[in-house]
Design goal:
The structure holds two protein chains of two kinds. Chain A is about 20% helix and about 30% strand. Chain A is of the alpha/beta class. In chain A, β10 and β11 form a beta hairpin. In chain A, about 45% of the residues are buried. By secondary structure, chain B is of the alpha/beta class. Chain B has six helices and twelve strands. The chains are: A alpha/beta, B alpha/beta. The interface between A and B is large, with 52 and 58 residues.
Chain lengths: ~230, ~230
């Protein structure tokens, strides 16, 4: 039973990561957050030219190293050993966040705990639990040209994570452009949230029911796209 | 011109109780391993430590935590360390969490003579409480102040006896900005060379920021070994 559940979880993460990959435009500079967002790199289609930024000071993250290639001085922001692509550059943390804050990163894909209908994001702290820190998330949400949040559509208790307003402490206010979940793709627009895609196995009604915030249904909505 | 040391105990001997330290590194990468070990052995207490992370339980700054030498920690992510959690919950350790880019810029500003600056990171979040908000071009920003340290501890791959430093790959991280923000900056280098051995155009930290140098062998522990498996 537990094994079955884990298998499903892996498939769900894969589904979200693969859909998120479609957000990456060839020729762009992208920052992938720690955890599920990092998995998106595994699905980048051949032929797409993408430079991945790591906020610890690397532009041009490569694949994980073979055993004989491991360099303890070369890690990503998740502290995992990585390689650098040909044409990569290394720099200081101040330079790294200057390029983030200065609007030079085209896209950031981040994880989320809650997103509000105004595009507020909460993803760093649960009151009462140990506070680990926000790392670079608060800077990234204001710096990258486009912010895509990827997460499960509902929490472990089956409750909505896309809310009228966030209950958890915010990472950033009015910062999210698009939400991609295992069930739907939702855009944050001035008029509110717009449902633009529904994943295989779900109906528009089911998405509405599992979303607390009000959803406008896009005129060009696509069903079963992923 | 620079003080070249051969003993790690000697090079940190004048760090007194209550000092504010900045320590380079991201995770365990680029940390001044031997300087931290020497501080642990010196027993100096009531330290305020400014560093992105706080090591792991048994390595890096975690060693100073274990020894209860740190009173206050300023960093951006401290989740790799159980002892940290224990000391925060028991009230022994004060923590100030700062967005990573804000932390980097506060340190950079400290070394560059800029007392404060505005940044959008943290607007509308718990960290904005009590902080001045100002609007520029219809966007809100938070006022953040510079950070300085009594002692800055950094690690470089190579340094020359003039204090010029070069870092390896992502071991650069916070090190160059921390080097510039310390009243006394101590550089632990993997290799100490003579002036002229480094190409002047490739120096990351110009020697003016460094007061003391010492070379030391690095263990370079890996926090998360992730590999591509050979097919």
């Amino acid at each position: 039973m537990i094994k079955q559940k884990q298998f499903d979880k892996t498939l769900i993460r894969e589904r979200i990561a693969k859909r998120a990959e479609q957000e990456i435009v060839s020729g762009s500079y992208v920052n992938l957050g720690i955890g599920m967002p990092t998995m998106v790199a595994n699905y980048i289609q051949t032929g797409k030219e993408v430079v991945l930024q790591s906020e610890n000071g690397l532009l041009g993250i490569g694949r994980f190293p073979y055993e004989q290639e491991v360099d303890p001085d070369l890690i990503n922001a998740g502290k995992e050993t990585v390689t650098a692509i040909t044409g990569a550059s290394y720099f200081s943390s101040a330079e790294s966040f200057a390029m983030i804050r200065g609007g030079h990163i085209d896209l950031a894909i981040l994880g989320g705990m809650e997103v509000s209908e105004k595009g507020d994001l909460a993803n760093w702290m649960i009151p009462g639990k140990m506070i680990k820190g926000m790392g670079g998330a608060m800077d990234l949400v204001h710096g990258a040209k486009k912010i895509v949040v990827i997460m499960d559509h509902v929490n472990k208790q089956g409750e909505a994570k896309i809310l009228k307003s966030c209950t958890l402490p915010l990472t950033g206010k009015n910062v999210v452009n698009r939400i991609i979940t295992d069930r739907a793709v939702i855009d944050v627009e001035d008029k509110g949230l717009v449902l633009v895609e529904v994943a295989e196995g779900f109906s528009i009604e089911e998405i509405m029911e599992s979303t607390e915030a009000a959803l406008h249904v896009s005129e060009s909505i696509q069903i079963g796209t992923y | 011109m620079k003080q070249i040391y051969t003993s790690f105990h000697e090079v940190v001997k004048d760090v007194t109780d209550g000092s504010t330290l900045m320590v380079g590194g991201f995770g365990l990468v680029g940390i001044p391993e031997n300087l931290i070990l020497a501080l642990r052995d010196s027993g100096v207490k009531h330290l305020t430590v400014i560093s992105n992370n706080c090591g792991v339980d048994d390595w890096g700054l975690g060693l100073l935590l274990q020894n209860k030498q740190i009173d206050k920690m300023i960093g951006s992510y401290v989740g790799e360390n159980k002892e940290f959690e224990h000391q925060v919950l028991s009230g022994e350790l004060e923590v100030e969490l700062v967005p990573q880019g804000t932390l980097a810029e506060r340190i950079r500003a400290g070394g560059a003579g800029i007392p404060a600056f505005y940044t959008p990171a943290g607007v509308g979040t718990p960290i904005a409480e009590g902080i001045e908000v100002r609007t520029f071009n219809n966007k809100e920003y938070l006022l953040q102040t510079a950070l300085k340290a009594d002692y800055s501890l950094v690690r470089a791959a190579v340094g020359d006896t003039q204090g010029n430093l070069i870092y390896n790959k992502t071991a650069q991280n916070f090190n160059p900005i921390i080097a510039a923000a310390g009243n006394v900056t101590i550089a632990e280098v993997e290799r100490l060379v003579e002036p002229g051995d480094l190409h002047p155009a490739q120096i990351h930290t110009p020697g003016i920021y460094v007061q003391r140098l010492i070379d030391g062998k690095q263990e370079k522990r890996i926090e998360k070994l992730t590999l591509t498996q050979l097919a």
